[in-house]
């Protein structure tokens, strides 16, 4: 967009109005879907309690084309700023229910109202996966955490464990070395598998030690975490003293609302989409971490969201059957 076009302030959501697209979710994919739907000049409602998504909790993003190095907060801010060049309405709350009506429209309920759309772009993302071991729930935020950027500063000069073996686990461990005196990466497999550049950084960081072929099976302490229990001895003991434990073992797709209206999911609970972000329900599209794409990154979610916007626009432009249900409220 030309630089002289100012940001447009989102409008308030309107009941008994038929939006052309309702976007559910405000992370990178949601912001991209809103921006591109704006370029198609669609009437848009964005439903999301928070804008930016989980990437705002990431320190360094180095794999988004055009940004050699940027914080997650800066990247989300750039996407939101671009989105605000286009008119849209915004409901700053979560969707609680979706209904597919007889005329093919969708009714989206929130805690404060209900809104109608010709199409849905579902970009709700995912939530952190838990270990589901004894003590995890009791010591959450009392030594057990899921976000290094959020909670790492509480562990200055402490000993910390990070559970997981993917790139995100390595990045969490590297970030935690800014505060901790020692970080252990605890992984159930033979060897961790981050991106090569992060693998090199882990190997070169003297504060990090990798414990392979090991699972955390219990978390113990009194008022806060004191130690974890492994499924096999490490240096002669299954009990391992830690001041904090950060769990980074993946995410669970937030697909429940989609499932309830019959959207097809895979065994992982991810929404099955095609190359144009379409699902098995006409007019319902999905993108980002909630979808079944194997490789999940901010850039892939944004690309899927752009395809979803294109598909929604094509569907709307070709449909001739009138919508009537929204008038009933």
**Name of the CATH homologous superfamily of the largest domain:** FAD/NAD(P)-binding domain
User: What amount of the residues lies in strands?
Assistant: 25-35%
Largest sheet: 7 strands, mixed
Shape: elongated
Mean pLDDT value:
94
Put the structure in a nutshell.
This protein is of the alpha/beta class.
Q: How would you describe this protein?
A:
- The chain has 329 residues and is of the alpha/beta class.
- The chain folds into two domains: 18-127 and 251-328, FAD/NAD(P)-binding domain (3-Layer(bba) Sandwich); 144-247, FAD/NAD(P)-binding domain, CATH 3.50.50.
- 22% of the residues lie in helices and 26% in strands.
- It contains seven helices and 17 strands.
- It has helices at 28-39, 72-83, 148-151, 167-176, 196-204, 256-260, 298-318; strands spanning 18-24, 44-47, 89-91, 95-100, 106-110, 114-122, 126-128, 144-145, 159-163, 182-186, 208-211, 216-221, 225-234, 237-241, 244-247, 251-253, 284-286.
- Strands 1, 2, 3, 4, 5, 6 and 17 form a seven-stranded mixed beta sheet that branches. The chain has a five-stranded parallel beta sheet with strand order 8-15-9-10-11, with helices on one face.
- Helix 4 packs parallel to helix 5 (196-204).
- The longest helix has 21 residues, at 298-318.
- It starts with 17 loop residues before the first strand and ends in an 11-residue tail after the last helix.
- The relative contact order is 0.18.
Describe the secondary structure blueprint for this structure.
Blueprint: E1 18-24, H1 28-39, E2 44-47, H2 72-83, E3 89-91, E4 95-100, E5 106-110, E6 114-122, E7 126-128, E8 144-145, H3 148-151, E9 159-163, H4 167-176, E10 182-186, H5 196-204, E11 208-211, E12 216-221, E13 225-234, E14 237-241, E15 244-247, E16 251-253, H6 256-260, E17 284-286, H7 298-318
Parallel strand pairs: 1-2, 1-6, 2-3, 6-17, 8-15, 9-10, 9-15, 10-11
Antiparallel strand pairs: 4-5, 5-6, 7-16, 12-13, 13-14
Helix pairs in contact: 1-2, 1-7, 4-5
């Amino acid at each position: 967009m030309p630089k002289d076009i100012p940001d447009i302030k989102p409008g308030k959501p309107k009941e008994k109005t038929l939006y052309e697209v309702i976007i559910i979710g405000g992370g990178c994919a949601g912001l991209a879907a809103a921006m591109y739907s704006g370029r198609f000049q669609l009437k848009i409602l964005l439903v999301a309690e928070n804008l930016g998504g989980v990437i705002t909790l990431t320190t360094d993003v180095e794999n988004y084309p055009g940004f050699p190095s940027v914080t997650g907060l800066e990247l989300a801010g750039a996407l939101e700023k671009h989105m605000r060049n286009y008119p849209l309405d915004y409901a700053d709350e979560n969707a609680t229910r979706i209904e597919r009506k007889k005329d093919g429209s969708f009714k989206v309920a929130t805690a404060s109202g209900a809104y109608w759309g010709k199409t849905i772009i579902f970009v709700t993302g995912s939530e952190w996966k838990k270990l589901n071991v004894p003590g995890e729930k009791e010591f959450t935020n009392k030594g057990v955490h899921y976000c290094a950027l959020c909670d790492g500063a509480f562990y200055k000069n402490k000993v910390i464990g990070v559970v997981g073996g993917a790139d995100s686990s390595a990045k969490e461990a590297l970030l935690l070395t800014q505060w901790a005196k020692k970080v252990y990466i605890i992984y159930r497999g033979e060897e961790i598998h981050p991106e090569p550049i992060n693998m090199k950084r882990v190997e070169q960081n003297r504060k990090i030690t990798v414990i392979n072929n090991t699972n955390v099976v219990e978390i113990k302490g009194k008022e806060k975490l004191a130690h974890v229990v492994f499924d096999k001895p490490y240096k002669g003991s299954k009990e391992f003293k830690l001041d904090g434990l950060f769990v980074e073992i993946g995410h669970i797709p937030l697909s429940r609302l989609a499932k309830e209206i019959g959207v097809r999911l895979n065994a992982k609970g991810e929404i099955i989409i095609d190359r144009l972000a379409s699902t098995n329900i006409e007019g319902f599209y999905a993108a980002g971490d909630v979808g079944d794409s194997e490789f999940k990154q901010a850039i892939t979610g944004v690309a899927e969201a752009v395809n979803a916007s294109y598909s929604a626009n094509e569907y709307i432009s070709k449909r001739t059957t009138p919508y009537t249900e929204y008038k009933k409220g």
